[in-house]
Amino acid sequence: MKPVYETNIDITEMKKRVEEIDNSTPNPFLRIIRYVTLIPRALCEDINDRAK
Fold first, then answer.
1. Cα–Cα distance, 36 to 13 (Å, whole number)
2. Which of helix, strand or coil describes residue 27?
3. DSSP codes, 1-52
4. What span, in angstroms and rounded, lies between the C-alpha atoms of 41 and 27?
5. Per residue of the chain (52 residues), what is the pLDDT tens digit?
6. pTM of the model
7. How much is the pLDDT for 52?
8. 22, 23, 17, 25: which is closest to 41 by C-alpha?
9. Under the phi-then-psi rule, with left for phi > 0, alpha for psi from -120 to 50, and beta for the rest, what region is 10?
10. How far is 11 from 51, CA to CA, in rounded Å?
11. Are 14 and 7 within 8 A, CB to CB?
12. What residue segments make up the domains of the chain, in order of their start?
């Protein structure tokens, strides 16, 4: 089985974004929501970069 989609998402970039969320969001529930939206957003950016 070949992977359907290979990403080249930068892990260090993701860590930076997670730290930004930690620092800017004191509310744990909002934090969870932001974490959940992080990954799809990164995937979309990756797909958009490939389309250019």
1. 16
2. coil
3. ---S------HHHHHHHHHHHHHH---HHHHHHHHHHHHHHHHHHHHHHHH-
4. 21
5. 666 666 666 778 778 888 888 888 888 888 888 888 887 887 787 778 777 7
6. 0.51
7. 75
8. 17
9. beta
10. 21
11. no
12. 11-51
